[in-house]
Amino acid sequence: MSSSTEAVDVGEVKTGSSLGRQLFWYFGGLIAVYLIGMVAFWPPAGEQPDQMIFLVLMFAPTAGALLTWAVAKGSIQWGRPNWWLFAGLIPALAVLGVYLVGVLFGWDTVDPGLLRTALVGAPLAILGAAISAAGEEIGWRGFLWPTLRARFGFWRVSLIVGVIWWAYHVPLVIFGWYGSLEGLPAFTLAIAGFTLFVGVLTDRSKSLWPSVVAHAAWNGLVATSFAVTEGAVTFPAFSGSDQLMGEFGWLAAITTALLGFATALWHTRRR
Q1: What string of H, E and C letters represents the secondary structure of 95-122?
Q2: Which has the closest alpha carbon to 95: 249, 261, 255?
Q3: Rounded distance, CA 189 to CA 258, Å?
Q4: CA torsion through residues 153, 156, 160, 165, sign
Q5: Residue 78 and residue 75: Cα distance in Å, rounded?
Q6: To which H or E segment does residue 230 belong?
Q7: Please, which residues have CB within 8 angstroms of residue 224's CB and are 6 or more apart in sequence?
């Protein structure tokens, strides 16, 4: 696998045929693993699926990237940990700030004790979520993003990757395993903003690890409303309506969209 400089530097512009071949193997591997996970762990009627199905699906993008590397000479931009890792915490911190402001306006409520415990345990929550987040990010920001950026501009690649990433989640929403159909518009907006933000991190850091941190912080903190887990039960530090809270709520969605768009404007105007 190539180093971060070789992968993102994109000095060698791929020909259309080589790009098409790499994308064929990438999506072929991703879809194959995705379908295998669905079939192998499909739950009995009326039951929620086992967590194993989500683990398999989250590593489907990595499977596609590794297959492309092995068969079609695709490059995975690993990169090295750098200071951009800390920027990966910004979306979760921004949502935390909006949730706290929301308490003042009555949009949500907060349990100070639970929030304090959640913040103390945040590093472990992020670390725990980083394993599955890496399963996605090796494929999305490790392979797909830099591969497309070798040929296309930031905004076009953001649109392509954002739509693909959204479509990857939609079947789980439709089956009722993840989020809700009512929250899909807000989730769509959040995906758009998050794609822009981590795209900037990937371009600037020339590494996939900041996107892993951002994704893990989102899954470990925002998606659970900064919950504290005790045994098999989770207690969210913030409570409110499903329309406003969590990753399918409008507070996180609007915050992330504004953050992503502002960061993308800064990035594209200050190369």
Answers
A1: HHHHHHHHHHHCCEEECHHHHHHHHHCH
A2: 255
A3: 10
A4: positive
A5: 9
A6: strand 227-230
A7: 234, 236, 246
What's the pTM? 0.90
Give the start-to-end residue ranges of the domains of the chain: 80-269
Residue 229 has phi, psi (to 5 degrees) of -100, 130
Given a contact cutoff of 8 angstroms between Cβ atoms, the answer to whether 1 and 75 are in contact is yes
Q: How far apart are CA 198 and CA 203, in angstroms?
A: 9
CB 178 within 8 A of CB 113: no
Total residue length of the chain: 271
Helix (H, G, I), strand (E, B), or coil: what is residue 227? strand
Query: For residue 82, which amino acid is it?
Result: N
Distance CA(75)–CA(70), nearest Å, equals: 10
Cβ count within 10 A of residue 82: 15
- Token pair of 99 as six digits: 């949730």
Terminal CA-to-CA distance of the chain, rounded, Å? 27
Residue 236 is classified by DSSP as: E
8 A C-beta contact, residue 229 and residue 122: no
- Classify strands 238-240 and 108-110 as parallel, antiparallel or unpaired: antiparallel
The band of 45, judged by pLDDT with boundaries at 50, 70 and 90, is confident
In angstroms and rounded to an integer, the radius of gyration of the C-alpha atoms of the chain is: 19
In degrees rounded to 5, what are phi and psi of residue 114?
Answer: -65, -40
pLDDT reading at 201 higher than 60: yes
Mean pLDDT along residues 129-143: 96
